[in-house]
Amino acid sequence: MYIILDKNKNIPDGFRNLTDEEIAKDFLKLDVDKNYFISKNEWIISLVKLLESELPELDKEAPDAIMKRIQELSDEFDKYDLDKNKYIDYIEYNNFLKSNILISE
Q1: For 74-80, which contacts have Cβ atoms below 8 Å and span 24 or more sequence positions?
Q2: Structure pTM?
Q3: Helix, strand and coil percent figures for the chain, each rounded to 5
């Protein structure tokens, strides 16, 4: 399970930062064309595939719930893309995950 760090950067018991190896493996899964950059299209397509099991529930939730979730994924991409060049490089991805995401032990 993943959680997002709170503003105080406190790490709750039972959670840890992701390792460099875990981040690299995850980055390479998202980098479909293997050019060492993640485009917004790669980002959204990969994550929508991961969310496939949630799609029926989202469809029941509201007529536009799926599109709302896609917009959230797009906004998340923009947070990672610090230099605003429309691509996430490994350094941006690594820095963001290490600063904001924890995984359960």
Answers
A1: 74/40, 74/44, 77/40, 77/43, 77/44
A2: 0.79
A3: 55, 15, 30
